[in-house]
Amino acid sequence: MPSILRVDPPRTTNFQSDDDRLFVKSVGRAMLVLSAFHHASGPLSLTNVAKNAGIDRSAAQRLIHTLLKLGYIRRSADDHGYLPGFRLLDHTLDLLRLDPVVQKATPVLLELRKTIRERVDFSLYDETRLIYAFRIQSKRETFYATLVGHSVPTPCTAGGRAALSALPDTEAQEIVKRSTIPEYTAQTETDPEKIMALVRQARSDGFALVVNEFVQGEVAIGVAVTNRDGLPLGAIHVAGSLSEWTPKDFVDQAAPVTLEAARAINGSL
């Protein structure tokens, strides 16, 4: 699978103009250090942290020492580098338990999973990407498919296209053009105009359908969760195996209950 999608921080240590007196640059640099792990495949050395963060080695050393003391960075088991610290999970929990959309969606999604008995995910909309905030797995999973916080390009998934369908056409098109669109499979649609046609189809149907595009052998539908103005907050994803479902049978079975779940969440917000 392509690299995990992340929003990179500004590639500068200045961040803001000098007249922004409320902005604390040292905090910004600390966030750069934590962001240095976004694309890492293992522990990072001090030199690699500095390089990835775009700061000098001396500043990186001081910031790593501070974050290490606070538990936001830890030494790797072999003591050959650094990894994110466990304290970061405390903040992940805070985000999920306090987010009003996740709060309202969770009980509805649990009931949906009992009904459909296939993988059910819920993602939060962040323009060019969706961030998975809730995942209930089925019997066919990969490591990344189990991780909360994993993010994917909005135009590449059923949930993302459903979210885009809740936007005006011009705004959805602008987001598609700004998005990274990797070829997850040989059938991944990467042409912006064809993606927009699929977004318009999702707007007409009320859900988006993806077959063999994001995961080979998988069929998935996505339905947008929206605010009171009808703008996307996130999306429900339901996915099944093509060895067990035809796309038509999956839509017939999954689309009505997923649309009902989305209406229940939307009505509670």
Characteristics of this structure?
single chain; 269 residues; Arc Repressor Mutant, subunit A; 2 domains; 6-stranded antiparallel sheet; two-stranded antiparallel ribbon
Summarize the structure.
A hairpin with a 6-residue loop joins strand 1 (73-75) and strand 2. The protein is an alpha+beta fold and 269 residues long. 43% of the residues lie in helices and 18% in strands.
What does this protein structure show overall?
This protein has 269 residues and is α+β, with helices and mostly antiparallel strands. The protein folds into two domains: 1-85, Orthogonal Bundle (Arc Repressor Mutant, subunit A); 99-268, Beta-Lactamase (2-Layer Sandwich), CATH 3.30.450.40. It is built from nine helices and eight strands. The strands form two sheets. It has a six-stranded antiparallel sheet with strand order 5-4-3-8-7-6. The protein has a two-stranded antiparallel sheet with strand order 1-2. β3 and β4 (129-136) form a beta hairpin. α1 (25-35) crosses α2 and α7 (169-178) packs across α8 (192-205). 33% of the residues are buried.
Q: How do the strands line up in the largest sheet?
A: 5-4-3-8-7-6
Percent helix, as a range, is 40-55%
Overall pLDDT level: 90
**So, the CATH homologous superfamily of the largest domain?**
GAF domain
User: What's the gyration radius in Å?
Assistant: 20 Å
**End-to-end CA span:** 34 Å
Poorly predicted tracts of residues: none
- Provide a count of the helices: 9
- The CATH first-level class of the largest domain comes to Alpha Beta
Q: How many beta strands in the DSSP annotation?
A: 8
Number of domains: 2
| CATH topology grouping of the largest domain | Beta-Lactamase
Structural class: alpha+beta
CATH architecture of the largest domain: 2-Layer Sandwich
Order of helices and strands: HHHEEHHEEEHHHEEEH
Strand content: 15-25%
**Bulk shape:** elongated
